[in-house]
Write a structure and sequence with these properties.
Blueprint: H1 13-32, H2 42-55, H3 70-82, H4 86-112, H5 115-126, H6 129-135, H7 143-161, H8 164-178, H9 185-201, H10 206-230, H11 233-239, H12 243-259, E1 283-290, E2 293-300, H13 303-306, H14 309-323, H15 326-343, H16 358-373, H17 379-401, H18 412-416
Antiparallel strand pairs: 1-2
Helix pairs in contact: 1-4, 1-5, 2-3, 3-4, 4-5, 4-6, 4-7, 5-16, 6-17, 7-8, 7-9, 8-10, 9-10, 9-15, 14-15, 14-16, 15-16
Length: 424
């Protein structure tokens, strides 16, 4: 895979870093614009209460109690550093959401050997209205891709130079990802399986091979579990709980995650089931009241990116098998391993859970576009037209995501589509 990409779409490392810096700067602006004047939602307020409940008092807070607690720790840190304004309340999400943009670009570049693919994946994430919406909230959704992408990047560096401490760092980062949401288990399992398979194929003496396998298991199984456990230290120390309390709490969290139907009736009207995520534009909406009028935050997927995902991964899997390309097969494993458990789930799973999948989706779409463009004439023109159409589509979606649609003569009809059924 790494040596296939050359020609019109390839650039050197300096230009890649410059492009990545520009795209990251755009991501900063899109995620922070007007954030100080943006009203708090009920989730934002509840996340603040949950942070103090968990870290200071050692008890579960009111917001999304069924998820792990790293969000509460991060929010508590930002609230103490930046105060109770938007920077303190939403700072963790803004920072981690923004940093995910250069991370996805770098991971994609390392996997594909193509800097242009990396820039394209970074651009998709930078302007994605769903990611922007949740990057401006105090809840944990965009924390997940940050830690997963960080863990993958360090693992890929380890894979190239075999410095043992890097896999240890990757395991720590995967543990932090698990402490955000349990869906991090899917890319963690895919990564461990990939490394174990490569290790099994290596032509090494039996003793060395067993040693490598044991090291992978410790780094990517034992260590993440230990890191996850350590994020509950405030609960043990401040709340006076013991190991049996912790095990009982984990069982309750697991049961709730299996049957969870949302915390308000309206969420069941937002039927963006995972099987539909890449087949049609899907959405999420949140509401509050500010300065005498409603404020409606509407996140809608960009169809010119999201709806290319399934064709992209069909091509990616085909080429991976045909070319025996391990990086292609690994990306396929990451995507399908994260997507299928959600798509096959029997309960409601809303768009906020898509961040377990969309980073890999955007990588695959970047591969799909570059792979097809290199086969056809007028590629520069077609690439420019596609990017222009994608960015033009992203503009109204952005203003809907930051709550500027209500009252806008063009966007207001879209906002009205999300009025709760009992108010229509």
């Amino acid at each position: 895979m790494n040596r296939e990409f050359s020609g019109w779409y390839e650039i050197d490392n300096d230009r890649f870093l410059l492009g990545l810096a520009i795209i990251t700067a755009v991501a900063v602006v899109l995620r922070s614009y007007g954030i100080g004047a943006a009203p708090m939602t009920s989730d934002d307020v509840g996340a603040v209460a949950s942070a103090f409940d968990f870290v200071r008092d050692g008890r579960y807070g009111p917001t999304m109690w069924q998820h792990p607690k790293l969000r509460d720790i991060l929010n508590f840190i930002f609230l103490n550093l930046l105060g109770g304004g938007a920077g303190g309340v939403k700072g963790a999400s803004i920072v981690l959401g923004t940093l995910s943009v250069p991370l996805i670009g770098t991971v994609t570049s390392r996997l594909s050997g193509s800097h242009i693919m990396g820039l394209l994946a970074a651009l998709f994430l930078a302007v994605d209205s769903v990611h922007i919406d949740f990057s401006r909230q105090a809840i944990q959704e965009v924390h997940l891709p940050f830690f997963v992408l960080s863990a993958l990047l360090v693992m890929l560096i380890y894979r190239s130079n075999r410095k043992s401490h890097l896999l240890v760092i990757s395991g720590i980062l995967f543990g932090l990802a698990l402490a955000v949401k349990w869906s991090a288990l899917f890319p963690l399992a895919a990564t461990a399986a990939f490394l174990l398979f490569e290790c099994a194929k290596d032509d090494l003496p039996f003793h060395d091979k067993c040693s490598d396998i044991a090291f992978i298991v410790v780094s990517l199984v034992v260590l993440p579990a230990a890191v996850y456990f350590l994020t509950y230290v405030p609960w043990f120390v401040r709340g006076g709980h013991d190991l049996w309390d912790w095990l009982a709490a984990q069982r309750l969290m697991a049961r709730e995650n299996v049957i969870h139907q949302g915390f308000q009736a309206y969420t069941n009207e937002l039927t963006s089931y995972p099987v539909l995520w890449f087949l049609k534009p899907v959405n999420w909406a949140d509401f509050t009241f500010f300065a005498g009028h409603p404020v409606v935050f509407v996140a809608i997927s960009n169809p010119l990116v999201w709806m290319l995902t399934l064709p992209a991964f069909a091509l990616l899997l085909y080429n991976g098998i045909k070319e025996k390309a391990p990086n292609l097969l690994f990306l396929s494993l990451l995507f399908w391993g994260a997507y299928l458990p959600l798509a096959l789930a029997r309960r409601h799973i809303w768009l906020n859970s898509s961040f377990a999948v969309t980073p890999f989706a955007f990588m695959g779409v970047a591969y799909f576009i570059i792979t097809w463009l290199k086969r056809i004439p007028y590629r520069n023109l077609l690439c420019s037209l596609y990017l222009a159409a994608m960015l033009l589509t992203a503009v109204p979606l952005y203003f809907l995501a930051i709550g500027k649609g209500y009252g806008n003569p063009i966007l207001h009809p879209v906002v009205e589509l999300f009025r709760p059924a009992n108010e229509r």
